[in-house]
Amino acid sequence: MKVFLGADHRGFDLKEKLKEWLKNKGHSVEDFGAHRMDPADDYPDFAVSVARKVAEDPVEHRGILLCGSGAGMDVAANKIKGIRATVVWNTESAEHARSHDDVNVISIATDWTPPEQARQIVKTFLETPFSDEERHIRRLKKIEEIEEKNFK
Predict the structure, then answer these.
(1) In a 3-state reduction of DSSP, which class is residue 50?
(2) Which of 61, 67, 96, 136 is catalytic?
(3) Which residue out of 9, 27, 96, 100 is catalytically annotated?
(4) pLDDT above 90 covers what percent of the chain?
(5) 100: annotated active-site residue
């Protein structure tokens, strides 16, 4: 599985920590920035870059986005067809998002998430499989139908 990272200035420090931790765990990681601390950068630039890469192979690719609230990154990523992104704030929300909604991108609010908690969230996100339960498959098919109608 390939992991793509993106962060704005508020997520920059945590992204750098997570990047090294993921590499040390043996993950293939690609960093889409920010590559330096720049308070004038804009989160949509990083979110869309990560989301486009994940959308190339949404089963084998995962995206992790980091910004102050997590919300802006999440909104931007969900504009890309094939992306199912959500803000997660603990391991339980990450596990639920993967097992029920087959999310392929998570956003983490760096203003309220310490590094150790972020590592546990990411670990859960990367290790939790989709449940393949009929009710979840049915719901995801409905979402795909909405995408087909609205993302032309």
Answers:
(1) helix
(2) 67
(3) 100
(4) 95
(5) yes
Residues 6 or more apart from 106 whose CB is under 8 A from it?
Answer: 63, 64, 65, 85, 86, 87, 88, 94, 97, 121, 122, 125
Of 84, 98, 106, 101, whose CA–CA distance to 151 is shortest?
A: 84
Nearest to 65 by CA among 21, 114, 112, 3: 3
What's the pTM value of the predicted model, to 2 decimals? 0.95
pLDDT 10s digits, 21-49: 999 999 999 999 999 999 999 999 999 99
Count of other CB atoms within 10 angstroms of residue 94? 24
CATH number at residue 48: 3.40.1400.10
Total count of domains within the chain: 1
Give me the pLDDT at residue 152, please: 63
Respond yes or no: is residue 9 known to be catalytic: no
Boundaries of domain holding 93 = 2-150
